[in-house]
Design goal:
This protein is mainly α. The protein contains nine helices and no strands. Keywords: DNA-binding, Transcription, Transcription regulation. It comes from Mycolicibacterium litorale.
């Protein structure tokens, strides 16, 4: 598994799925229509997830909101969980940022954790975290895609910064697991009431124990 993997859309090239028109000059039109439909479907799915949650989302509702037929959705996403996973991963770039290296390991990790906690306790971020959790329980293949596109990159961000500071690999793995898992689990349990200060305090205690 590549440790530099970022979230990747399930469909590599939506436009390429549209059969080309016979005249070469007409090929752009169906591709534009495909992209317009794709954007509408993603926007509709995102809005409906926030309004109704994962359990309240249906392909029929997405199709109606996006103004497309159900078969258009199924052409690109074979199931509801796959569609939801793609939409969640498309938004994940706002969270999946590496821990910067300023030369101060403790401050770098604590600052990163503070931003993670702030994002996941915002109204939108917390809703998406709840949806991601429920979607992961629906199907194992969906859970695997969400782990690879969301959970693993968070873990690797912290672990790689610790390794860059010459922390032993096994300790770096365990510390990254404790930091990311501890914060995400606490937010899943307590929701938006979990404070950024608590997340940073937890991260500081763990990292300082590695460098003391």
């Amino acid at each position: 598994m590549s440790e530099t993997r970022r979230s990747v859309s399930f469909v590599a090239d939506y436009g390429a799925m549209t059969p080309p028109a016979t005249p070469a000059q007409d090929t752009a039109a169906p591709r534009r229509r495909s992209e317009k439909s794709r954007v509408a479907i993603i926007a509709a799915t995102r809005d409906l997830l926030l309004e109704r949650g994962f359990d309240g989302l249906s392909i029929e509702a997405v199709a109606a909101r996006a103004g497309v037929g159900k078969q258009t959705i199924y052409r690109w996403w074979p199931s509801r969980p796959v569609l939801v996973a793609d939409v969640l991963l498309e938004d994940a770039h706002e969270i999946l940022v590496p821990v910067r290296d300023t030369g101060d390991l403790v401050d770098d990790v604590v600052s990163w954790v503070g931003k993670l906690a702030a994002t996941l306790t915002s109204a939108r971020g917390n809703a998406m975290l709840r949806i991601l959790t429920v979607a992961s329980m629906e199907h194992e293949d969906t859970a695997a895609r969400l782990r690879a596109g969301f959970g693993d990159p968070l873990h690797f961000s912290v672990r790689d910064r610790l390794l860059a500071a010459a922390v032993d690999e096994s300790r770096a793995e365990s510390a990254a697991e404790a930091i990311v898992g501890g914060v995400v689990y606490a937010i899943q349990r307590e929701g938006r009431s979990y404070s950024r200060t608590r997340a940073q305090r937890t991260a500081r205690l763990i990292v300082e124990s590695l460098v003391s």
